[in-house]
Amino acid sequence: MLGRLLKYDLKQFLKFLSVFYILGLFFAVLTRLFLNIDNSLFMKIVGEICRGAAFSMLFSAFANNILRLWVKFRQSVYGDESYLTHTLPVKKHCIYSSKMLTAVITAFVSLIVLILGLFVIYYSKENADALKAMISPILNTFNISLLTGLVLVVFVLYLEFINILQCGFTGIILGHRFNNGKLGMSVLFGFIIYMLSQITIVILMFIPAIFNSDFMNIFVTTKAMNLEVIKFAVVYSIISYIVINIVGFLINIKLFNKGVNVD
What we know:
Oligomer: single chain
Largest sheet: none
Shape: flat
């Protein structure tokens, strides 16, 4: 049954987001074409307009992705649609799991489309060399390639995006346990949970520092760090984010299984 729920949720969300995806990539291609036409002021102006439209569509996909996930979760679990949702022959944890998996998948698709759009607009050997030269000190420090460095950055941003989404779900679940001011309480709890998740990340990062003086230098000094310590910090932070997201998922499942008060 989880598979059917997930298929329905994904179809609904991707149908909505595909408008932004298609328009974003369409304007990205037009930007590439028009800005590559030399000796034409008109084409340059049109190209800049297309670039603005591409940015608007690509980043709107992200904004609408997160906002619509929260709105749809509230409507389908606590609003008018909830009466249909809760009559389905499916356990509560499957309902939440479908919403969370939809968030994970659509966030990944939105991220890929954004990267593809930026690649279409900006990629050239000159731009790639300029970017590599700009961040080469960091790449040389970690002894990694440009592609590996970009993948790591994107992956961390993706994990943070998932954390934000899940904190919003937690806020909605907690906020709707109140009889009044449910929307306001949802926003408040979502913000509090997000801040607690960030504090937890810092605490998790501080734990190995207790046992390793080199790692402690990250918190107490601005001097250059040992390469192995920096590598460990990056890997450990990624693992910490993954743990936070998994724990958050399990907590939300537990809260959701306690019952739902529909509006």
